[in-house]
Amino acid sequence: MNKNVEKMEAPPNSEELRQEIQLACFRIGTEMYALDILRIKEIIRPQRLTPVPKAPAFIEGVINLRGVVIPVVDLRKRFDQPHTDSDRKTRVIICGLSGKILGLMVDEVSEVRRYSRQEIQPAPKFLKGKGAEFFLGVCRNDEDLIMLLDLEKILSSDEKIDLDKIEKMPGKQG
């Protein structure tokens, strides 16, 4: 009986479970992207945005979500995608980043998928230039490729968003 207990404590597939990652897949324009679900706090419909003076162009503004002021990044602007009027499925993904909370505006959230670590390939090395650093890797969904986003890189390029200043900004310009 003791031998069975030992086997139950370390099931053979426990190694496989740790090697799996859940990704929330979403669309920006015609392209699919993904983010590790452990980074996501919730997904909400767009709310009334308050503009932030002198913020980088891709900061859409701030929202007040249950008493917390959250800066919202428009990923369409961040990735230099043209704006469309298709707001019907637009969502804001509320994420945690370095102890801060921020929103990512996307065109549509499609699904959550499980991938093994082996199914995620590194980002192609030939990707260079503006925007290439935003991606951790690539994974396949049937015939489509999904780019896995690096949240830290999206928000720490040349523009260097100071989330503290945006979150604590008074109502007047300065």
What would your notes on this structure say?
- The chain has one domain: Beta Barrel (OB fold (Dihydrolipoamide Acetyltransferase, E2P)).
- Mean pLDDT is 77; it is low at 1-17.
- Helix content is 15%, strand content 41%.
- A hairpin with a 2-residue loop joins strand 6 and strand 7 (100-106).
- The chain has helices at 2-9, 14-18, 75-78, 151-154, 163-167; strands spanning 20-28, 31-36, 40-44, 59-65, 68-74, 91-97, 100-106, 108-116, 121-122, 135-141, 144-149.
- The protein has 5 helices and 11 strands, in the order ααβββββαββββββαα.
Tell me the distance between the termini. 72 Å
The second-level CATH architecture is Beta Barrel
Instruction: Tell me roughly what share of residues is in helical segments.
Output: 10-25%
Gyration radius, to the nearest Å? 19 Å
Number of strands: 11
Find the structural class using helix and strand composition. Answer: mainly beta
Strand adjacency order, main sheet: 8-1-2-11-10-9
Q: Give unreliable regions as ranges.
A: 1-17
Query: For the record, what CATH class applies?
Result: Mainly Beta
What's this entry about, in short?
The protein has 174 residues and is mainly beta.
